[in-house]
Structures are given as C-alpha cells and as structure tokens.
Amino acid sequence: MSIDAILFANETYYAAFAEHDFDAMDDLWARSVPVACIHPGWHALDDRDKVMESWRAILADDAAPASMEAGATMSESRP
Asked: How many CB atoms lie within 10 A of CB 51?
C-alpha cells in the first residue's frame, strides 16, 4: 500500500468520524481479512460485526465528539 493510499484512508476515516457517517466508516473496514478495534476505555473488539456495531453506536450518539485530531504525515524509512 502506498503512502498516499494510507494517508487517504486516514483522511477518509476522520471525515467519516466528523460527519457521523456510518456508511463511510463501514466502507473503510476490511471485509476479507480479520479486523480489530480498541476504542478508548473499551475492551478489544476482534470481530468485524462487533467493530461495526460499536461504530454504529458511537456515530449515532449526538453526544459523541464531532472531531478528532487529524492531519497525519508519513515518511518512508529504509534500512
């Protein structure tokens, strides 16, 4: 995966979070490989259905934050 693709996925994640857009968040999470997620203060979720249930609840909550720190950068490190 290229650096640009990773940064694009990161930007898309933060946009989905800010807009409380479950469908966009759902599109970001892999369907063909295992996924896991740890929300702050939660236990680890290691099943896609559980991960997406958690995002549905978070994004549907009007009290959930509308933004998070964004603006990631990356650089390639070569040994």
From this structure: 21
* pLDDT score of 62: 79
Alpha helices in 19-61 (DSSP H): 22-28, 48-60
Q: Let me know: does 25 contact 64? Beta carbons within 8 Å.
A: no
d(CA 21, CA 50): 17
- Which tokens belong to 41? 């203060």
Q: Does the predicted model carry a pTM greater than 0.85?
A: no
Give the Cβ contact number of residue 6 at 10 Å.
12
Report which residue type is found at 49: D
CA pair distance 54, 37, nearest whole angstrom = 9
